[in-house]
Amino acid sequence: MSIRRLPEHLVNRIAAGEVVERPASALKELVENAIDAGATRIAISLSEGGLSRIDVADDGCGMTPSDMALALERHATSKLPDSLLGDDGAIDRVATLGFRGEALPSIASVARLTIESRIAGAEGWARTVDNGVLVREGPAALPPGTRVIVEGLFARVPARRKFLRSPRAEYAACLDAVRRLAMARCDIAFTLEHDGRRALAVTLAEERPARVAALTDRALADNAVPVDLERPTEAGALVLGGVASIPTYNRGVADHQYLFVNGRPVRDRLLMGAIRGAYAEMLPRDRHAVVALFLDVPASEVDVNVHPAKTEVRFRDPALVRGLIVSGLRRALDAAGHRSVQRPAETALQMWHTGQPAGPADAVRPDEAAFAANAAPALAGLGQGVRDYRPTFLTAPPAARAEPAWAPPPETVSHPLGVARGQVAKTYIVAEAEDGLVLVDQHAAHERLVLERMRAALAGGRIAAQALLIPEVVELDEPACDRLTARIGELAELGLDLERFGPSAMLVRTTPALLGQADPTGLVTDLADELAAFDSALSLRERLDAVAGTMACHGSVRAGRILGVAEMNALLREMEATPHSGQCNHGRPTWVKLAHGDIERLFGRR
After folding, report:
1. What is the rounded distance in angstroms from the CA atom of residue 445 to the CA atom of residue 580?
2. Would you say residue 455 lies in a domain?
3. Which of 46, 65, 205, 588 is the most exposed place for a label (fewest CB within 10 A)?
4. Which CATH number goes with the domain that contains 77?
């Protein structure tokens, strides 16, 4: 078969397959064009999830009739200045979101596309292209700006149309695309209507945290910390900003993680992995943080042309970017102190009334405004983070914990977590605070405290070890021993000295002193399992953190142990002064609060 040149309409349809996968893809291109046109207001209207109609109107600079004709030709653009058109590297320095002349002809080749546009001080003009064929052009009446209408996407391309999902699913994808673009540009007002119903509306001049909360969940404003970190490089500064949820405010899927590079919404595996690394030992494996991170990097340090839709990026120095994100998130979370879920979900309160199990909830929505003021005195000086943390709660031997049969109850003083009043089920500490009742999971809380002690010791150099009177032999399978042998040096930094003892056993000589009377067999067995699950790309510090988390679980106060009042109060005070103590190493809350109003409702006083 001879080689032939493809006809223009087929070339456009192939290009459309790369850029326009579904209504959300077309909508994203149109909204990005409106942003690049300098719009301050963008109004979007959809019908049947964009399958029938997509309508995007903006108040940007508009286009002349000749510009409009060029915009519908392939490889035409208004987004590179003439001075750069002869520069081979210009494509790598594009500061806009997309190429107007690349997306529009692709969309027009698989739908009926109408453009109406007007520049200030001139008459408006309209042009309609139906599946690649110009069918109408002429004057149009509209205010300055541009309006683009897309109708019947893929209606004449059944092979593509049949792979589109239901209108509801396509609408969800469109809403997500608009939400991400609106999150990136607080200086632009957005409205979105679907089948005549207002689905989204954000106004001008909203601060970034407020805009993020408005587009995700209003409760995020009270359950997030600001992220702000800058790192200089030879090419220019890398700047990270945004908001991140405290670990106990999480979701079951990662769809609520919004990432932006130089104002462009992206879905990047490197950045997602960095978020997981930053929240390691603070979230359960099946839960995900809610974050909106905005990364600004010099144009020479990032390639945005990896993917036709520009949703993926490639960094010149991936390790530097990953380290920036992990450090920025860790510093922000350190500043959160012991913040946690303040009160049970409404379903939990309902269970007290009815005695019926509460239904599942994807996220707990605490009200922490009042708590922040009460917690401020106890959190003073926490800005230095874990390095300045000095623990005070130490597990005393049973003989040292003997207390009189009766002692007067301690006075209620202004402590965020209150003073201990007793213990329930040998597991939960009951404390009275000035504004309510605090319940603490003693094992989860102490597990976090032990981990933070180990991190503080690591920051100082090396964790102290305690020698076993008789070295203990732990039998494992050979692959598990191989994994431990490869990490002997790292484990020694944590106070765990191991030696290979034949092909399928390890000899334990010391354990971390912080763990007290640890079980060497259980500890080494669990560590071998954890190492099997490690990502080989993890840095040494991240691996040490993961191992420290496993060790901390073995060295913490167990559920079922009776604590004295003095021990319980010491635990509460240390929690108030310890970063991340609002959640255990697996991301579960360590304490909850029943405000006085909640208690009154339980007894029908409200």
Report:
1. 10
2. no
3. 205
4. 3.30.565.10
The two tokens of residue 590 are 């360590």
User: 302-314, pLDDT tens digit by residue?
Assistant: 887 666 556 778 8
> Residues 145, 265: one domain?
no
Residues 564 and 393: beta-carbon distance below 8 Å: no
Q: Of 97, 161, 129, which is closest to residue 313 (Cα–Cα)?
A: 97
Q: Are residues 284 and 362 in the same domain?
A: no
What whole-number distance in Å separates Cα of residue 596 and Cα of residue 60? 53
CA–CA gap between residue 94 and residue 34 (Å, rounded): 16
Task: Name the strands in the sheet holding 257-261, side by side, starting at the edge strand that comes first in the sequence.
Answer: 224-231, 238-245, 291-296, 257-261, 264-266
Q: With 60 as the cut, is the pLDDT of residue 462 above it? A: yes
Mind giving me the DSSP string for 300-340?
A: GGEE--SSTT----EES-HHHHHHHHHHHHHHHHHHTTT--
Percentage of the chain exceeding pLDDT 90 = 33
For residue 215, what are its two tokens?
A: 């587009």
User: Nearest to residue 453, comparing CAs of 363, 377, 516, 502?
Assistant: 516
Non-local CB neighbours of 220 within 8 Å, separated by 6+ positions: 212, 213, 243, 245, 249, 290
Give the separation between CA 420 and CA 412, rounded to whole angstroms.
Answer: 9
Burial of 350 (0-12, 13-18, 19+ CB in 10 A): middle
What distance in Å separates the CA atoms of residue 203 and residue 41, rounded to the nearest whole number?
9
332 pLDDT higher than 80: yes
pTM: 0.63
In a domain, 577, yes or no: yes
Contact 19, 103 (CB under 8 A): yes
186 and 60 within one domain: yes
Q: Which residue has the higher pLDDT, 552 or 90?
A: 552
Q: How many Å apart are CA 395 and CA 401, to the nearest integer? A: 9
Specify the amino acid at residue 63.
Answer: M
128 and 135 Cβ atoms separated by less than 8 Å: yes
Type of residue numbered 319: A
Q: At residue 77, does pLDDT exceed 80?
A: no
- DSSP 3-state assignment of 515? helix
Residue with tokens 């390691």: 280
Q: What domain range includes position 24?
A: 8-202
Span 579-585, average pLDDT: 80
Q: How far apart are CA 280 and CA 585, in angstroms?
A: 8
- CA of 143: how far to CAs of 34, 67, 116, 122, 591, in Å? 15, 17, 10, 10, 57
Query: Looking at the structure, do residues 105 and 33 belong to the same domain, yes or no?
Result: yes
Question: Count of CB atoms within 10 A of residue 86's CB?
Answer: 7
In the predicted model, is pLDDT for residue 241 greater than 90? yes
Count of domains observed in the chain = 4
E strands in 119-160: 124-130, 133-140, 145-151
